Amino acid sequence: MKTLEQTTDEILNLAATHFKFPRAELQPADDFYKKLGIDSLQALELLTRLENHFGVELPDYEVQGISDFHTLAERIQARL
Amino acid sequence: MDDYKGKTLSWRLSDGVVELALDRPPANEIGLAMLEDLEAFASSLPTLELNASALILYSRQKAGFSAGADLRELFEQAQKLDASSAAIGVRAFLERIHAVLNRLDTSPLTTIAAVQGVCFGGGFELALVCDLIIADKMARFCFPELRLGLIPGFGGIPRLKRDIGNAVVRDLLLTGRSINATKALSAGLVSQVAAEREALRLARATAAQTTKFDQTTAAAAKRFIKPLPAEELRREIDIFCELFTRPTVMEGLRKFVENAGPHPYLP
Questions:
Q1: Is B245 a residue whose pLDDT tops 90?
Q2: Are B188 and B199 in contact (CB under 8 A)?
Q3: What is the dihedral of CA B250, B252, B256, B259, to 10 degrees?
Q4: Domain boundaries defined on chain B
Q5: What is the pTM of this model?
Q6: Lowest-pLDDT range of A39-43, B50-54, B243-247
Q7: Most buried pick, A58, B20, B131, B213, via CB within 10 A?
Q8: Catalytic site residue B145?
Q9: CATH number of the domain at B3-258, out of 3.90.226.10, 3.40.50.970, 3.90.550.10, 3.10.580.10?
């Protein structure tokens, strides 16, 4: 089973690839809305990619109030 | 008319398939302009149906199939009126949209929604009038209306009940969460999942299949297996209008419209 660090790393890789952002500039504590410059529709897109990648369902109300990659990783990790 | 370009959509008939393309930036929000274009399409349907076997609905907007009702327009219009007049206006709009969607629902053509991106609220309701939904793997389906103190008003609940199990209907309605195409496939809502941006291609292949069949037979089969839940659709309008007059709804609309942050589409 993946560790939380592995999950976080995969999320950062996926976000960097999809939003064409330098991976080296993304950190777990970053606010992904501000760092990536995305809105809620793009956040839903990211959510879908994460669900498809990890093979989980992540209800969007679980993402409510979350804006950093690390906490997002914890939510996903809880469903692996 | 075999070809038409309106303010918010266009359609064309080719090789026995009608393609209706939604094209109102940013996310095909359904307001008065799109309603008028849809009414024009519904008026043209009897002629189109003589020479077609299938109808595909799809979006040209990158954001998705449709983000639903134009809440900004709804709020702005409601703000200008007293509660009673606003309720009358809302009912009039709903009855018009129901007339159009009911006409699409009961078309003898095999109807296919090719969905990518957001398919929310009224947009989801538009997809639900179709016989088949083909979604790409980035599609998301949602009934967020409870967040505004409302229920779906374009016929979504009776149509969703017609198509899938009640437990999933309750999940979508009572949590307001969005589900992805994989979940929608397992729930029986979506018939095929396509690779990203390939839903229209799969829809065209499926539509081409329908051109092989006798249309009188196909239409008879469709009438038999897909009843219009007319009484429930009327009841849904009544419930929506009863809820609409409450202050919590205007407050919910105001919060959505005034949300300058990145979060309006999240619960």
A1: no
A2: no
A3: 100
A4: 3-258
A5: 0.95
A6: A39-43
A7: B20
A8: yes
A9: 3.90.226.10
